[in-house]
Structures are given as structure tokens and as C-alpha cells.
Amino acid sequence: MMAGLSFYLVIASPTPAHAMHIMEGFLPVQWAIFWWVVFIPFFVWGLRSITRITRQHPETKLLLALAGAFTFVLSALKIPSVTGSCSHPTGTGLGAVLFGPSVMSVLGALVLLFQALLLAHGGLTTLGANAVSMAVVGPFVAYGIYQLVIKASGRQTLAIFLAASLADLLTYVMTSVQLALAFPAEVGGIGAAFVKFAGIFALTQVPLALSEGLLTVLVWNWLVTYNYQELQTLNVIKEGA
User: Fold this and answer.
1) Res 104: pLDDT
2) Residues 6+ positions from 21 with CB-CB distance below 8 Å
3) Model pTM?
4) What is the mean pLDDT of the chain?
5) Which of 23, 44, 128, 142 is the most exposed place for a label (fewest CB within 10 A)?
6) What is the CATH code of the structural domain delimited by 23-228?
């Protein structure tokens, strides 16, 4: 039932995507190239990390696929925002906690590629910029917040919730920065443009980020119940926790 609902929401909806992903051809050429140059080192690092993990722990391949599928489904659920735009979850926090942020640079880029080709969501020339925001900044925020909260309080559920929620929010903040740099306002420059772009998503994104945090906690609890051994293998949870 859940698989059928996810398939309908992702594939069957005919509405065009004007979402957080920057659409094809929207960025000036120099900025499109710049963000590709920024992203490529993270992608190479991620490929090496995936190779190392799958060689050392081949039993975690299904969990790796789950992290990618979770990101794909959540980031394809488009929710109308103001000014004709859309907001959506990102789903990168779970994979960043499980495998580290570098792995999500690859999984996130693959998700963005499929969405650009199959759903007209984003674009190929802007894939570098979209990957930096969703597949680099979001996962690194999630991983950092998770580690910080775990060390400070030891409360894993709280750490997962904050990691997923803040990864979602900071992804949108980074996209707003990218757009502000490319299209500074005539009055107020980059700062004024950032306020404008960030305001487009603010009304819907805060509750959406909180909802993503709660959903990620539910999925995490499911993994702890049914994939406890794999989580121990990845050193995400300690034996006897």
C-alpha cells in the first residue's frame, strides 16, 4: 500500500516542478560551472567512501539502497509554496547519519539526476548547484548536528530529529544563497536578494522540515528494530545500547 501511494505521488502527478531545485538553464553559465567545480571533489570522495563501505561491509548494500530510495521519494513530494514555487522534503539526513555525508553526495546526485531526467525537476546544467545544496550542505549539516547532539546528550532520537530537520532547512538556505549570488537585487544587493529568495520557502519549509524530522525518527526506529546488526556494523549504535 505504501509503495503504491509513493509511486502515485512521485510518478502520476502531472504538475510541472518549480521547486527548490534550480531549473534547467536558470543560472548564468559562470555560476552553473562554478557550482559544478565545487561539487565534483565531494562526488569523487563519495565514490571512494561507497567503494570502501561496500567492500568492508557488503551486508549493508540494502541499507545503502534504502537511504537512496528514501531520499528519492521524499524529495519528489512537491508541496505548493508561495509565488508559484514549491517546497519539498530532502530525505538526506537519514543516509548522512547512517553512512556519513560523503556517501550522500553520490546518492543525492543520482537522485537529482533521475529527477531532472524523469520528473523535469531541476536540470542538468544546474545539477552541480542543486547537488551542493541538497547532497553536500544538507548531509554535512545532518551529520554534524547528529554527532554534536549525541556527544552532548546521548539522546539518539533527538539527534535524528534535529539532524533531519536542520538538514532540510539548511538545504533551502543554501539554495537561497546560490540564487542571491547569481541574481543580486538592484537595491540591497546579495543580502536583499537572499531575504527575498529565502522568504519564498519560509512559510512552508519550517513545518515541512519538522515533519521530515518526525518521519525520519519513525524510519530510524524501524531500522533499529529490524536492522540492528547492520547499524552496529556501521558503528551508528553501540552494542547494548
Assistant:
1) 96
2) 112, 115, 116, 121, 122, 123, 126, 130, 134
3) 0.85
4) 85
5) 44
6) 1.10.1760.20
